[in-house]
Amino acid sequence: MASNITTAISSTAFSLPISASALGGIVILTLAFVLGFPGNLFVVWSVFCRVRKRSVTCLLVLNLSLADAFVLLSAPLFLRYLAGGKGWEFGSAACKLVHYLSSVNMYVSIYLICLMSLDRCMAVTKPFLSQRMRTKRSLLVLLLVVWVMAFILSLPMPFYRSNLKKTFHNNITLSFCIPYHWRSVNHKVFQYVFETIMGCLVPFTLINVCYISVICRLKSAKFQRKNKGSRLILLIICAFAVFWLPYHIVNIIEVVGLLTGSVSVLNAARTARPNVTAFAYFSSAVNPILYVFAGSSHIRQAGLSFMAKLFEATNSESRSTSFTRSSRANSSPDETSVLHTMSVKLGKAFKGKDKERSSSTAEKYQGESVFKTLESAEQIE
Question: Where is it predominantly found (predicted)?
Answer without folding.
Answer: membrane
